[in-house]
Structures
1.
Amino acid sequence: MILTVTLNTALDITYRVPALVPHASHRVEEVTERPGGKGLNVARVLAALGHETVVTGFVGGPSGEVLRALLAGLAPVDELVPIRGATRRTIAVADAATGDTTQLNEPGPVVSSTEWDAFLTAYGRLLDGAEAVALCGSLPPGLPVGAYAQLVRQARTAKVPVLLDTSGEALRRGIAARPDLVKPNADELAQLTGSREPLRAARDARRRGAHTVVASLGAEGLLAASPDGLWQAAPPAAVRGNPTGAGDSAVAGLLSGLVEGLDWPGRLTRAVALSAATVLAPAAGEFDREAYAKMLGSVRVSEHAH
Amino acid sequence: MILTVTLNTALDITYRVPALVPHASHRVEEVTERPGGKGLNVARVLAALGHETVVTGFVGGPSGEVLRALLAGLAPVDELVPIRGATRRTIAVADAATGDTTQLNEPGPVVSSTEWDAFLTAYGRLLDGAEAVALCGSLPPGLPVGAYAQLVRQARTAKVPVLLDTSGEALRRGIAARPDLVKPNADELAQLTGSREPLRAARDARRRGAHTVVASLGAEGLLAASPDGLWQAAPPAAVRGNPTGAGDSAVAGLLSGLVEGLDWPGRLTRAVALSAATVLAPAAGEFDREAYAKMLGSVRVSEHAH
């Protein structure tokens, strides 16, 4: 089983409007809701790849109930921990004509220390049966900034490979606890290291504690800096579409490849192919299976000199 | 008791953001929720004026549960009828700097014919104890376009004075059932009658079936065309602020004045004062009690020649 952790789950709401005009009134033409938060997205892709997946994190309030009801219809197993506060909503306002979206993200519920303790107990129990764990996304208000560091240490003690995908101070603190893998994008990596030169920044991130760093560089694909070497993997040509969820699909590719014992070129190929197939899918966060299968054969992986 | 009907109730959500930028991502700084829909707003103002008020209409789904929980803390009595569909949400995105808002309104739940029948039974029972009834706002999907006409006829049969505040085809059909009072704004009146000349349009609306027409003309106040005469009432000077809810406050003023037996100049004075005090209040839809008391003494009412 692969475990994904989403401490700040979200009810993702999409509103279709003809075009968003500031300070005007809009009649929403279509409303769709889906369970959201990076770890939940990763789990859906993992499940689509045939992996048994379990999701945990926090859920609460009326929006949390809706999230759980929607999740019940999907493959990942719901092991979310109930809290008093309400799960945040995110609203994506999609212009019907262009497909451009305007994003409004609520901050998330305040999590109490009692609720955090309850989570740590549940997490420990779930690690027992896990082949790998992904820690994904932002921290909700109220959690200690070192929350991810604590979860990384607990996974390492349980000998479960742990991937951390977050940003800012949560990443800085989490990386120091020596996760097996971090997957920052170019901005997150620059914020962490102060360098916009990917190779230099990835090496710096390794020195800060990450065993392996896989940086997602948009159209240029992925750059992996591991103890075994340096690789770059990219799609044969730039893909155009909706990049929402592409990073989460890359995480699912890396994690499934790890569990299946693929080597680094194999993992990176899968991650890039999934990522590109997500950009190409019409629905945000879904991946196009046919494009994925086709892309697997055409991703270019090159090894860098050390 | 005064009854207000809101067939398309709403959970009104306000998001404060620094400034709304199309196609950008925004972290919402503050989230507030309140029970919404015109009839609920009218009932709150009526209750603040000391009137026993009952609200009915439809409520359902997770957003409906939140609405009912919030309503439980307020004065109006909740006699909403449960439905299978979910109460719509409205999102007001307020720019922190300027206070300008961008409005996103969900269309509302589909109401089945069985649910409509259940409402008609409940409505009949509530009319028994009502001194007056206000029918407010848009129709949710699934209801017959003649729904308001049916409710107007039922009120007239029960000899309960009935005010209709809606727009478009629902107004056109409702007005033909001869309500005691309609309160269109200038746009709604022009849409109904084809005329932008308020006096001519109000007279036309009376010919279409309304016993009395009170048109709200923004800064110019209210114009009443009744069997007893024609009046115009306006604040002493234009008021600046947030006009959200000003029309609903005017309805509450007219309805409370009717129940208390005020004459037309008295009712119009109250409606204009409440409306202006709503524009002046810092929170959308609330009215400033001090401004209201002061304004009551300074509203100018003039009688037109027939």
2.
Amino acid sequence: MSIATVCLSGTLDDKLVAVASAGFDGVEIFENDLVASSLSPKRIRERCADLGLTIDLYQPFRDFEAVPPDVLAANLRRAERKFDVMAELGADTVLVCSSVSPDAVDDDDLAAEQLHLLADRAADRGMRVAYEALAWGRFVDTFDHSWRIVRRAAHPALGLCLDSFHVLSRGGDPAAIRVIPADKVFFLQLADAPRLRMDVLQWSRHHRLFPGQGAFDLTGFVGSVLATGYTGPLSLEVFNDVFRQSDPNRTAVDAMRSLLVLKEKLGLVDLPRAPALDGYTGTEIATHDPALRETMTALGFHRTGTGRWRQGGATLTIRTGAATRITAVEVASTDPERSRRRAEALLARPDEHGVPAPDGTTVAFGTLANVAGEGLLTGIDHVSLTAPFDDVDQTALFYRAVLGLTAEPEAEFAAPYGLVRSLSASDGRVRIAHNVAMLRRGDWAPAVTDPQHIAFTTADALEAAKAMRASGARLLDIGDNYYDDLDARLAPPNLDELRANSVLYDRDEHGEYLHFSTDIFGDRVFFEIVQRVGGYLGYGVVNSPVRMAAHRRSRLRNSR
Amino acid sequence: MSIATVCLSGTLDDKLVAVASAGFDGVEIFENDLVASSLSPKRIRERCADLGLTIDLYQPFRDFEAVPPDVLAANLRRAERKFDVMAELGADTVLVCSSVSPDAVDDDDLAAEQLHLLADRAADRGMRVAYEALAWGRFVDTFDHSWRIVRRAAHPALGLCLDSFHVLSRGGDPAAIRVIPADKVFFLQLADAPRLRMDVLQWSRHHRLFPGQGAFDLTGFVGSVLATGYTGPLSLEVFNDVFRQSDPNRTAVDAMRSLLVLKEKLGLVDLPRAPALDGYTGTEIATHDPALRETMTALGFHRTGTGRWRQGGATLTIRTGAATRITAVEVASTDPERSRRRAEALLARPDEHGVPAPDGTTVAFGTLANVAGEGLLTGIDHVSLTAPFDDVDQTALFYRAVLGLTAEPEAEFAAPYGLVRSLSASDGRVRIAHNVAMLRRGDWAPAVTDPQHIAFTTADALEAAKAMRASGARLLDIGDNYYDDLDARLAPPNLDELRANSVLYDRDEHGEYLHFSTDIFGDRVFFEIVQRVGGYLGYGVVNSPVRMAAHRRSRLRNSR
């Protein structure tokens, strides 16, 4: 398993250390990292050897083929200088990208002839050339086109580099890869990406993701490449604005986890399977805001032990902590021990409390005690957590992979203080959401940043709201403008009741969603009570900006 | 002058206050802001009146026209509910966007007929409908198409809303707007944008900018609209991820400045013209790092007065300050008093030191004393400043507008700790650059964040580097990998000398650029010495990542 240094932030040495610590076997050395490094290629070679890393590829070499003779001469001189570096570095394969140069002409025979020449020069030094079709190459922009040229050149030191992004972003059919002989696939680069409708070059340079974080079918792609008989490294090459500025140690671990999940899907690694989940056994909140416990009581919870609270089918642990936050999510596993082993295999480090997730929450595995009791609340619908904007893709992948959840469609909405991304995953019983600012927030945003919440299920949201409000629960008031708009948009039959009880409403093609919230406690955590009618699939995200504005008002009022 | 509330961050009340303080006369009320507000429409009307704001538009109303009868009935009901809100609000114009609904059909006659019906309903209440072609409208996506429908509908309460983004993003010809009668242009919305090759909906929703910050010809566009005889508001409607989370008071001032600059170009406002500049009279640095003054001496500077230093044609003021930074840029104006008046007209607040720019630097205006003297340095080539990533577009516009500079092509490069945007503006004598992280940085990046620098000009960079190094100036060492790559890329004839003196090199079609840097002083400021050969236009940005990595090394070494 290998990774390109361009995936990570820092200097070359920062990157090599991070890559080795995360357990990779090899690296692709990205030229810019080497150029900016004070280490000579020879020292880099020694450094990699010390760290147990092989140098699997030197990249990229650009704009070589299908050019007039004078340009060819200059390009060969340039290549020889790079072969000098590679020789010192001990790298035997160079990536040559299909040309984007205005000097190039559209002539496959000429491209093949000149690549043959380059492969000759490489072979003289015991090196080889991996030719890659960039999705935005001037004339060669698909893998099958690059393969036709490589086949025509027919040189043992010339083969292909296949990159999932370049193939899948263009809608290429990976099944066609299977016709390529294994000894002609010199290298395999992997990147996922969200489906974006934008210039493919910008998409590639800014928005790639690690496998499993985007929308591409990496399993199918790698499956096709492996079907050729390819036995070289699976190597990650991810250009991503956020990863470029994040802690490389953390990014490297996340990258390795994503590769493990991919290998599991391909049957290349045997991880403990994710056991089926039976829902939540509870969640834990740390706080020292007394109002939180008061509202628990008003919501109908009662204490069942030290720090343990229950209301119908919903249980919660409250412990005293300096800052209010959701400290643990306890899920009911059909095999808690295997759940823990799976987490460990996915690079988590379980302790006596459970598995620490990248967002700081502990994931604990228990078994479901049959605790169904009387009460308005029947359990936990979802837990909404937070992660820094630059860690959320990795964090979400962690939860999905460890718990065996499926990603749900991502939502994005304009909140009062900026755009918010909402990622969620579910197996139908356990739902975990992460709501994060799209960009790191500016300083100005007042009031609540990054609130977390626990959403309890109820069979009757209107009744629950009435009863809880009557008990003095600090529930959020929603203004009339919302209901006037709701009337114009969806005209729910029970509009007056929704309005009277400050219950929010949404509808999709499967059903309805009624939900209401408490105030925010300890500047961080609130409770939501939700009722799903029919098969409604979402989380009422359309109402989130209204809820957020209402939370700000209630905080201003409470702080007076 | 008007602005849509969607341009700004915060709750509706935050926005209204910011808009009024910045001197706008009116607002477009964005529906989501109203829906999330606890203020009733009537209270919002009163609030606007108190703040001296007219409500110029209520927006948006979506997916109305060219639908089957049952959908039409529902849409009319929906419209009546919104007219109720508008009546309370005292808004008389509603924006109706061309439909993106799957319910709509491609039938201009039907669209015209149904819009006529809507206009009738509006007219009954003394209101009017401004129909706008979204650039991604399902059937109607150009202004001329929307105009054909409005003309066909022939209702006095039905007219057009023209939005510069929707017209210019599609490459529409604004000159064709001049055929539309003035009484049919109900509203004019203005937004600029960078030229991006991406889905136009995403481009519009995330990347709009205020006029003058992007690549669109707003002057030509507004000129065409005014040529119809349009006398309504010029209203800004800018959806931008960053502005959505920035301090609305600041954004509103920046928005107003951008509108003033646009109006100046159109001859609609008479601002003091920017006087020609003669270059720099100096710059001022605050520091308490003694190494900075030592290096000044080694660079050949000598004191000419309290805190004043000179070397040949370059002058500098060093004052003692707690944090090291460039505190002032002093430019030589042919009319300093007019320069100051211009700054004031552009919403700056000059004090006795000069004009405070949004990035915290003071811009001072002096007159050029003829100080040419002996020395290796001949003056200041450019000053490179910093601004938070979410303020840099506004900051750059401020410098351009106040100083009368022209924007140069924007550069973007991968630095060791993340992507960096480099914006610069110049009049050929004064060059101001801003280098900022593309995203707010993560916490991990060690060493230098946001360094500033002053670049002095020299006629011979190699000689200057030798002399300064001999005098003990703390100059940056550049590693061999850079020169080996330079040899492969550009093969400069004086490679050995460049290498021996750690001088960086670049070349464009106009000439060459030789440059070298000192260490960073006080964690913030360094000096660069640059030689332009021929008409080289850039700033050697290609070498920035190498310089940054070298700066990190030198800081680690110095901190040992």
